[in-house]
Amino acid sequence: MKKLKHLFERNQKWANDIKEETPDFFTQLSKQQAPDYLWIGCSDSRVPANQLVALPPGEIFVHRNIANVVVHSDLNCLSVIQYAVEVLKVKHIIICGHYGCGGVKASMEDKEHGLIDNWLRHIKDVGRFHSFKLKDLQGEEKVDRLCELNVIEQVNNVCETTIVQNAWKAGSDLSVHGWIYDIKDGTLRDLGTCMVGEDRLLVD
Ligand code: CO
Q: Is the model's pLDDT at 204 over the cut of 80?
């Protein structure tokens, strides 16, 4: 018996439903992808990029990792950004964090979590940079504030990459956005850190 048969059945139904509505959907999409958006988000199963913004396949280029971190030397993430910006020519890069992020929460704990602690160091650094904004907060409120600060920090990291810097120097109107998703009610919020161009003008 085929393993995970129920997932193949769900896939068949999903593909059939789309083809019923738009018979040439997959044929057209197989010829090219031209997404306007690069989404950098958390791996958390409750934060699926396309579903949150109700967009079909082909509309969002996606990179996800634990706690939506953009590390200066992470070749995986940087390769995704380069491909998205230079080849796909996306117009927007969205860093989307979420409240109650397990990675952010774990970075605030004193106990050991194994290998992942090395990754979480990046979020611990964000906490250290902004310790004055966090010192009077407790519990969930403190975790959620660090979730927001982490997104803002990653927006800056994306803007600092040679890829985005070079795109802006070449006159691109690429913009970088910082969003946060609330897993308790399914809504997105813009953190007001959208940046455009070398001078990083804040725009609405
Ligand atoms: Co998370």
A: no
